[in-house]
Design goal:
mainly alpha
Length: 232
């Protein structure tokens, strides 16, 4: 796999962990291990690089916190997306700074893909317990249907990781191993700094309902400038 080691056993274990992380976000037990910082670290830990997974998770915490997971609006699904991004950077990033940018892009895209999968599932699960003639079967039958809904949510999250992990690893690997003299990589440091700084600033502003967090936006710009110099 273009120099990337990813066994079938590792892939299967990643799918199981992705299912558990996806369950935590809405269904059970809501223990906060679906937060990007935690989920990304778990993805990196699975492949022996917790620091790499944590780095991807930190940036995704900033990028995805602009969309808080409550209310009626659609928002990115943070858990499986961050887990996939952290795992992809741990497997294929090789410590390359530009790999972080690719991992964050993977996490953002996977988060919105997960959001639409959640919407589709939420259209199915109400039919398990809600019927025009009412639900019949008593409390025990209702509990079984509830457990079935939980299992479907975990299956959905596991399938999301199963489908996106390998493409994510390949994408991060491709970006991380571009030759130094290629015209595209010369712009990666600037794009990384501006993109991640903007994400940090916008995310920080979104944390306040009324106040405009311009100091946080400024801090994001300073952080991006420092990142540009580091990557250069």
């Amino acid at each position: 796999m273009t120099g990337v080691e990813l066994t079938a056993a590792d892939w299967a274990l990643a799918c199981l962990l992705g299912a558990a992380i996806g369950l935590d976000e809405v269904s059970w037990p809501q223990a906060m291990w679906s937060r990007p910082l935690v989920a990304g670290t778990l993805g990196g830990t699975l492949f022996g690089a917790p620091a790499a997974g944590c780095l991807a998770g930190v940036w995704l915490e900033l990028v995805l916190s602009r969309h808080p997971p409550f209310g009626g609006a659609r928002h990115p699904e943070t858990g499986p997306a961050s887990f996939t991004a952290g795992a992809a950077y741990a497997v294929a990033g090789g410590g390359a700074p530009v790999g972080v940018v690719a991992a964050v892009a993977v996490g953002w895209a996977a988060g919105w893909t997960g959001a639409y999968s959640v919407t589709l599932l939420r259209r199915v699960t109400p039919r398990l317990v809600s019927r025009p003639d009412g639900f019949r079967g008593g409390a025990a039958a209702l509990a079984r249907r509830h457990r079935l809904a939980l299992a479907l949510d975990g299956l959905r999250a596991g399938l999301l990781v199963a489908a996106l992990l390998v493409p994510s690893v390949l994408f991060v690997r491709l970006v991380s191993t571009q030759p130094t003299g290629a015209p595209g990589p010369a712009w990666w440091p600037v794009a990384a700094g501006l993109g991640l700084a903007g994400a940090a600033g916008v995310a920080a502003r979104g944390l306040g309902a009324r106040a405009r967090h311009w100091p946080a936006l400024t801090a994001g710009g300073v952080l991006g400038t420092l990142l540009v110099r580091w990557l250069s």
